[in-house]
Amino acid sequence: MAQVSFTLNGVAKTITVDSIETPLLWVLRDQLGLTGTKYGCGVEICGACTVMVNGEPEKSCDKSIGEVAGKSVMTVEGLKNDPLGARLQKAWVQYQVPQCGFCQSGMLMSAYGRLKAGESVSSTATGIPNLCQCGTFQRVKEAILALPTIA
């Protein structure tokens, strides 16, 4: 057993885990009940598990809880507390982006990370590396491109 302290969606957390090697994804979903972050491929390819760690998009399926000790983690549930994140979520709804919705939290987090880093809207719209089996890429692109018009 080990204790790990980190900030989660702006709130300080200290949790007890069986092992500091436990993937962050499982701690978020199973221990903390934040099920917006999804398990997809488990090998850092699809991006469904993307979260922000110290302001950078990271795949939580292959990042251990020990690696985030002392760091700040933001999940899709935390986007609503950030003006850009709230606008992204609003654009996703307005442009009816989700089909099955499984990959969408990871896409939101990837877009958020790129935009927060100063990437242009057009570059972000065409550069998200996440995979989507439903093929909602065109709606993702439209929602991101519409951001400047969404309050």
Describe the structure.
This protein is α+β, with helices and mostly antiparallel strands. A five-stranded mixed β-sheet has the order 2-1-5-3-4, covered by helices on one side. The chain is globular. 32% of the residues lie in helices and 17% in strands. Helix 2 packs across helix 3 (104-116), helix 2 crosses helix 5 (137-145) and helix 4 runs antiparallel to helix 5. A hairpin with a 2-residue loop joins strand 3 and strand 4. It contains five helices and five strands; from the N terminus they run ββαβββαααα.
Q: Give unreliable regions as ranges.
A: none
Write down the secondary-structure element order. EEHEEEHHHH
Helix content: 25-40%
Strand content: 15-25%
Give me the count of strands.
5
Please give the order of strands in the largest beta sheet.
Answer: 2-1-5-3-4
The major beta sheet can be summarized as: 5 strands, mixed
List keywords for this structure.
151 residues; alpha+beta; five-stranded mixed sheet; 5 helices; 32% helix; globular
Give the structure's gist in a few sentences:
The protein has 151 residues and is of the alpha+beta class. The protein has five helices and five strands.
How do the strands and helices of this protein lay out in sequence?
Elements: E1 2-8, E2 11-17, H1 24-31, E3 50-53, E4 56-59, E5 72-74, H2 83-94, H3 104-116, H4 121-127, H5 137-145
Parallel strand pairs: 1-5
Antiparallel strand pairs: 1-2, 3-4, 3-5
Helix pairs in contact: 2-3, 2-5, 4-5
